[in-house]
Amino acid sequence: MHEMSLAEGVLQLIEDAATEQQFERVTTVWLEIGQLSGVEVEAMKFCFDAVTRDSIADGALLEIVATPGTGWCMQCSMSVPMSEVFGECPQCGSHQMQVTGGTEMRVKELEVA
Amino acid sequence: MCTTCGCAAGDVKIDGDDPHHGHEHVHADGTRHSHGHEHGAGEAHEHSHDHSHESAHGHRYAPVHSNAAPAHSHAPGLGARRMVQIEQDILAKNNAYALQNRQRLAALGIFTLNLVSSPGSGKTTLLCKTIEMLKGKSVVAVIEGDQQTSQDAERIRATGAPAIQINTGKGCHLDAHMVGHAMGKLELPADSLLMIENVGNLVCPAAFDLGEAHKVVILSVTEGEDKPIKYPDMFRAATLMLMNKCDLLPYLSFKVEAAIEFARRVNPGIEVIQVSATTGQGMDEWLAWLARGAELAAAQKTVAGGVPQVRSAVTETRAGA
Hints:
The complex is a heterodimer. Chain A is of the alpha+beta class. Chain A contains two helices and six strands, in the order H-E-H-E-E-E-E-E.
């Protein structure tokens, strides 16, 4: 979803960091994207290339670190893996689940010059 | 892009005006600042980019092409590569603006809702009906979001309520920064209601906090009952689902129970009210829900500056009462 806006957000964070930490080129960007964040990785890469053109991160490699989805099953009272936000508990099949992890959309680190 | 506040360059218009026209603007917290004349790529103010990079010239950054190799790194100041830890949420900037909006609204005890749905669910009609029914009881102001035209804001103004139109241009959702600008143009009396009608889109607005108390998702019964599992992010982000156009149920094969079941599969805690803006069915229940929220917002009204502590203290007092 809305990967173009997210890519613009990534570029803003990079540009802010460039001002603060005095670097002029970004060669690699590591993003942490949760499995349940709704971000389509291929679309993200496409949009990232588009918004970074003629910027400090033009041509930078985009590395995606995927984090697994986890949820709390209210029936089992335990943390279980989730592959979709409306997933069912692999233990008991219940949909009474609260997502507890895997919704991250973070810029982790940069390789800069 | 505006480097002072991070506004995206471009086509956003608030009641037809570029929020940066004149290069000065006011933020939700009342901060006013002016901007240097800096434009994003694609605008021809600074310099043209349609040249090759063989000579020295006035670029701020090293000239770069795809697969930029070290051979291109001839700009001064380029040293060895190093790692920089960022560890920031991609939406951090939006969330910071949302917090500003939320604090400003909390200080005034304003109950704010972010209305989201697919296009054509009847959001604006429902809003007009709600405003009419609240006339004389509550003050309602509206921020309307659409890609183009101010038709929705005009429909709202025809009910007598103040409305500001945000045109997102190419954008598919409202963000907290645009809403902060729009709030600055609206008269927002204390203890009132602020309704933000988002761009009709069941995907993108889910991720963007605008500073609202709740997202309210509107699902009309002329859509499929499986929308909640087709667009789970939105239904997960919402506190309340208004099932609209219920007067049409006799003519449709829409299964109300299935729709509710799907919504609860995505969001076990979601509340559901069945309404019809046309016949008025369920509107009393919706207005009662609004009144409860508005009462709570007014009771939790904060003094500017002392936000979280004051709020929790008030909540505890109420809980203990």
